[in-house]
Fold this sequence. Notes:
Largest sheet: 4 strands, mixed
Strand order of the largest sheet: 1-8-7-13
Oligomer: single chain
Helix content: 25-40%
Strand content: 15-25%
Number of helices: 6
Structural class: alpha/beta
Amino acid sequence: MHRSIRTLLFGLLVMCFSAAAFAQIGVSITIAPPALPVYDQPVCPGDGYLWTPGYWAWGDDFNDYYWVPGTWVLGPEPGLLWTPPYWGWGGSSFVFYDGYWGPQVGFYGGIGYGFGYFGVGFVGGRWQGNQFFYNRAVFNVNVTEIHNVYEDRVTNVTVVNHVSYNGGNGGVTARPTPQEEAAAHDRHIGPVAAQTDHVQQARSNPQLRASANQGRPPIAATAKPGEFKGSGVIAAREAGGHYTAPAGRGAAPANHVRDLPPAERPAPQNTGNPKLDKQYQKQANKQYVEQQKERQKLQSQQDKEDAKVARQNNDAAKQQVEQRHQQQTQQMQQRHQQQTQQLQQRMSPAPRADDRPR
């Protein structure tokens, strides 16, 4: 009952915002989203469809990230372009910024989604009057059926690390350009109904949860929104980075370090480059030892504080200590996961030519 009231109040609050203020949805999540998976773009299903990149969303009811497949969508009206959603570090947790339609593409965290969205702006096509012209150098378009195309090859594209969030440890460090700041104050329209339904179908599909697919979703992209079966479905070729499920995912958050399961030693990677794999294993083992030391130190500190507050027989003080310990534990988990992601990104082999965003 209380949750329904909060949802209703939140909905009324959102309705009060102007379209120009459309964007930020705060979610108290201290675990970074997985890396963006590697996948191919399905063929554009018809003239007028625009590409909306896939992204990781959060399901608070099952306490996990889930993949929203990239898809082709008919926008709300001619002349509008899609600004993708993204995750940003807000200082104490990750904040989700929803996508929107507008006359210009705004800031989307500098995330390299590929397919025309390489971190800044959009090079997938342009509107000429009421008709959209597709850049076939980055979009998968059947030119025998769609003739309003051109080819403008993208140069100097260096975003190949698949990082899915802005800010924080290991995140993209991009900041809005003056053009993107101007676009933020332009007219915005939220996702169309087909996009909303697409997200809901992804949310209800257990196979799209990160803990189930290990960062490699079986449905990475679709030809049309909500069509999760058939020839238009594209599976991820590989995860964008090694996926490590945070301890306690799918369950209540751990209150103390001692409540966490034992940390696993880093598994060896097999990239086909023995020298790189050996170097990675050496650094991963070193990082594991350092993280274990930090974990043991924090556990010892928490145990001492628990013993002290137990002697005081003060329920209010005990509750404050419990809350502080839970926050410390979650922050340590997030920090260790981000350190692992940073190491994996730093030690990844150079991408193959066919892995680069088109």
